[in-house]
Every structure is written in C-alpha cells, then in structure tokens.
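User: Here's a chain of 610 residues. Predict its fold as tokens.
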Amino acid sequence: MADPGSDTSLVRNFCIIAHIDHGKSTLADRLIQKGHLVTDRDFQNQILDNMDIERERGITIKSQAVTIPYLAADGKEYSLNLVDTPGHVDFSYEVSRAINSCEGALLLVDATQGVQAQTLSNMYLALEHNLEIIPVINKIDMQAADIPGTKLQIEKDLGLDPDDALLVSARQGTGVDELFEAIVHKVPPPSGSSASPLRALIFDCHYDPYRGVVVHLRLFDGTIKKGMKIRFMSNGSEYTVETAGVFKLALVETAELSAGAVGYIIAGVKTVSDVRVGDTVTGADNPCAGPLPGFREVKPVVFSSIYPVDSNDYEEFKTSLEKLKLNDASLIYEKDSSAALGFGFRCGFLGLLHLEVIQERLEREFDQSVIFTAPSVKYKVHLRGGPGHPGEEIMVDNPMEYPDEGRIEGAEEPYIRAAVITPTAYLGNIMSLCLEKRGVQTAMNYLDEKRVELVYDMPLAEVLFDFYDRLKSTSRGYASFDYEITDYKTTELAKLDILLNGKQVDALSQLVFRERAYDRARMVCERLRDEIPRQQFKIPIQGSIGSQIIARETVNALRKDVLAKCYGGDITRKRKLLEKQKEGKKRMRMVGDVELPQSAFLAVLKTKED
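Assistant: Prediction complete.
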C-alpha cells in the first residue's frame, strides 16, 4: 500500500457525528471489519472505545482515529482516515477539534428516534468548518424504524437533501458498501502541499508508559519524518521526532507523514501539559507563517474537590492524578486542603459526566478510594468599595473562598441556553421541570406534529445536580438535551455551612441559591442523621447561613445509664446518679469529636434529592 498521504487524491478524512446512542461506535466497528484491520477472532464490539467505562455506558469519551484501507469500485486503493468523536455535550471542544481535522462528516440519525438536540448542534459545528455532510439513517432493521418520517426530519430540521441519505443498519452491516463508495466520491480529498512548511493540527494525545506522550495529528501542509525538529506553537517548546506513523488500531510506523495524512508522532514528550488539543505543530527550522485557527484553552465549568479516603494515601493519589492528567488534558487541578478530610485537590471538569468519568477512572484504573465534594460552578462576586477605593470583582468556585456576607455587594452566576427536543406528550412535565430549575422560556418551536423544541435560559448550577436524570425519567428517555454557556446574570447567592456538634465541616459547605438554601440544608441534615453512627451523647446536625441556623436534625444518644448500683432505696438516689452521669455526658460532648464516615459524604453528594 502507498505511504499514507503520499498521494492526497487517494486520501479521505472523515468523522462520524451523532447524538449520543445513535449507533456511532457500532458503525465504526463495521467500517473497521470491512477494512480487514482486525481478524474476526480478535474483534470485539465498540473496538475504538478502549476504556471499560465507555463499553459499559455505551458512550465515547476519548476521540480515536483509525486509517482504513479500501479498494473502491474504480480499482484504486484509498486510505480512509476515520476520526471518531465523542457524542456527549461535555466533550464538544474535542468534537470541534476532530471535525477540524476532516473534510467530510457522516451525520448519523437513528431511524427510531429521529433528529435530536446533539444532532443539530454537531451539524452546525460541521457546517462552520465547511465539511461535506453525508446524512446516514441508521437502525433501519429495527421494528420501530420510521424511515419516511426520519427523511422528512432531515429535510425540515437539518435542511439537507433526504434523497442523499444512505440507509444503513450498523448492527447487521447493511448498506456499508454503499457508504464506503459515498465517502470516496462525496468527501473531497485534502488540499495542501507537501512542499510547504509543516503545519499540523493536534486533535488528541494519549500517554504510553514506555514511550511517553503519543501526539495525534492531522497534517495540512508539509511532511514530518523521524529525526525532524518540531515546535508546538502555543508554548514554543521544541522536540525531535523519534517515530511517525498511522493508526491501524495498533500504532503502525511509516517512513513519513505527508500533507493530508492523519497519524501520530512520538517525540520524547514527557509532560502532557506541553501538548494541547487544538495546537499547531510546525518545523523548528522552517516554521509556517501562523497557527491554524480555532485553538483555545479548554475552560472547566464544574468544580469539585477530591480527597483520598485515607489521608496516608495522599502521595499515591497525587501520582494517580498526574498519570490520569496525561490521558485527559482537559482535567485541571490544584492543591487544596480541608480540616475534615485533610489534603486533596480542587479540580475543574467540563461537565458532570466528565466528573463521573474521572471518579470511575480513579477507582478502576488506579485503585484509589476517593471522596468528591459537592460540585459547584464559578460565580462572580462583587465586593463593596470603601472610602477612597472602588469595589472589586472576584471569581469564586470554592465555598472556602467565599467572602463574609458584609463585604458582598452582589453576585452573578453562569447561565446556559438549553435546548430540549421532546415528543409533545411530555411537554407539560418538561416545562414544569425547567420552571422548577429557574428556567425562563425563550422559544418554543414545533418541529413537526409530534416533536417540539423548547429553548430555555437557565442557571448552570441548576443543571448540575439531577436535571439530566429527571429529564430522561420524565420523558421515558425520549427527550434530548443540549446546552451552551451564554453569560453571567445577577443572583441571590448564599454560603450554606453544615455544623456537626457545633463545629463546621468545611468539606460539606456549598454555595446555593438563597431561596433554595432551606430545602438543601434540610436534605443534607436528614442524610447525615441517617449515616452518622450514634455516640454516647446527642449529636446536633445544623445547616446555617452565617450565624442563622436554618435546619437541624439530631442523632440520638445510645442510652448507657448505669443504675446497677442503685438497688432499692429512694427514687432521689437514682435521680442524683443520673444527674451526675448527665454532667459527664455534657462534658464528653464538649470534648468529643464526631467522626464522619465516608458513606455520609457520598450520601450527601448523591445527585438525586430523594
């Protein structure tokens, strides 16, 4: 086979974009099997999803790439570079980088569910990058498949020609040959010249414990080969290429990569923080004029602190987090400490799913037992000015850094534009849910007789806890949800503290909307009451805002009153003895520390308020 990228007319770069659970990974499986990259004996479903958590949940978290050789009907052998993309809204930046490294996109629509929220937003993303879009209707073998209805949605909702839509059953392999031919004939070959200075886009990277960081690239101009000196344009760091090659499930080394190719390089990069998704790679000796457009720092939107269950495991936990960061450049963390939980890290995540994925990976891949504090968003807090100096604005995501109430002029919280597509039967319930979450409806569009799109402005903090779960249960799984962060709006913010036996537990403090503070405090107190083991003295659990107690529960004492030595005699002797014991218990409560079990933290932080 020809060297990848040596003749750009025989190269096609494409990605598959779809709403979550529309069969993207299954279709990729069929394409890989058709290209004979893996024997039937070694094949496994979701072959590009190499994390256990991806397989179990049926989601793609890390984008993968693979080069598929294909002998077309015209007798020529093509190199088809598939850049797989995640489907969940949390990973939209990763999707945009994958889309930027392609010339075409297969837009996958489920024949049983039709066009959904993420389908629309991913299509607009592809259009922004001028990709050739091939609509593909998947799951045509299902009994509930509505092919004419789905074609109508493709025409009305997406504005694409329904006659161009290819009918495919990824599970059975129907229509895959026609799909290969469509990719060859409809997706344009990459432009760019191998003679120009090197210009390549980093769309992903992963860490190999033996070889260092493996950088995933799409070359737009120039060539890259072993021994060449390269530069990362975002930070100016320079490395010498040790190996270059292509992805064929395994890493396959080649002599060089030319313009239009998708492949990898290994250049002895030890710190993955040098490698940033979306960055441009160029030659150190003959650099290109400027970087490729679209690079931005990934900004976390959800923040939480992570602590090891046993504080003696801190060093091991720190090492695990550093290794995890090598495979997930969007994870941001800094050191943090808590009086209740000891030393840990304050982490920033792309969304709640990203947080859950990090938690599971720490537990599975690194065997770490960890506690997460309540997730929070980043608030803008305006401080009062004084005589001679104006008030300042600070960003707060950690309740520990929240200033005293008396210093605060006002606060703002991040808002999102949420788009929900739902069958009309569940409209009332979903509108009630959005209203409960402080959403303000800005649009309501009937897509057809059965489906409606609702657009809401709502606070990001309200979506963090249980919005997605409740949306799915309210609509029996049919409603789909997509959001983008818009701007900051004024809010009534309060810091909710939890006191245990009169002492503040800093790890349980939360920043909440003031009107919801009472409900939240009551829920936390009730959960803790059920989880904290009883002592020989009563334990008060209180929720407070400043010095005002707004909720209280009590863990009753174990009754261990000793009356054995009072055999007979006057009742006053018993009373006197019990009074003496009561004084002892009061003193015990004053000096006694209450130990919080790990299950208490986990119970409070469960997302469902049930």
